[in-house]
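Structure first, sequence second, as always.
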């Protein structure tokens, strides 16, 4: 018997959200019966198992590798050097490099994340607004989140949340994720109709998706 928390809200659909440790929660409408939620989870059992296996493998790989400050971090598809200056007042960009103040690997990681989030908050709303004109749909809000198992997600309230990790991807891959989420505003599913909308804007979306899969593996190995 699977055990999982259920988070109820005003949303209209059911969703499964995986956590980095492989556990998950189900988000569902207020009045949806638990029997229907259980049936939904059972229908997604193979997907849940696959994701849990992947996440636990990643956790083990990170534990084996040990946390260390990377020499470089990808940013919009280009490796940017990571420099450490303990005398600095705060982490910042310098000549296209991450300039950190923390020598501790965990604190350095937090500073890298902080710099990427700042960039994501600046760039992703503008990229989304650009593609919204072509797709013909605009979100109610664009947010930046911490998701590790997805690059972006769209809610029934028409909010789009992108993972800060998307800033590591080359711009064509960023465009694909943005278009993918915008198309969910028309087709809130992954039906053939949905993929037809995506392909209308991004004909080579399959290749870009494969590139993102490879990037996700690299970021995981870097403990990012």
């Amino acid at each position: 018997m699977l055990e999982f928390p259920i988070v109820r809200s005003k949303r209209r659909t059911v969703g499964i959200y995986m956590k980095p440790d492989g556990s998950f929660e189900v988000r569902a409408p207020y009045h949806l019966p638990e029997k229907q939620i259980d049936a939904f989870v059972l229908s997604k059992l193979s997907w849940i198992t696959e994701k849990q296996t992947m996440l636990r493998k990643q956790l083990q790989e990170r534990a084996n590798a040990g946390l260390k400050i990377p020499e470089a971090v990808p940013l919009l598809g280009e490796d940017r050097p990571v420099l450490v200056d303990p005398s600095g007042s705060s982490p910042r960009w310098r000549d296209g490099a991450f300039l950190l103040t923390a020598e501790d690997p965990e604190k350095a990681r937090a500073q890298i994340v902080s710099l990427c989030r700042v960039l994501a908050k600046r760039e992703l709303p503008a990229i989304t607004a650009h593609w919204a004109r072509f797709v013909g749909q605009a979100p109610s809000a664009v947010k930046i989140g911490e998701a590790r198992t997805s690059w972006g997600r769209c809610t029934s309230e028409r909010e789009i949340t992108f993972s800060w990790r998307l800033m590591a991807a080359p711009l064509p891959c960023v465009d694909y994720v943005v278009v993918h989420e915008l198309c969910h505003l028309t087709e809130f599913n992954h039906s053939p109709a949905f993929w037809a909308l995506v392909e209308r804007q991004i004909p080579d979306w399959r290749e870009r998706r494969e590139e993102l899969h490879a990037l996700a593996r690299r970021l995981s190995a870097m403990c990012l």
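Margin note: The CA atoms of residues 46 and 52 lie 10 Å apart.
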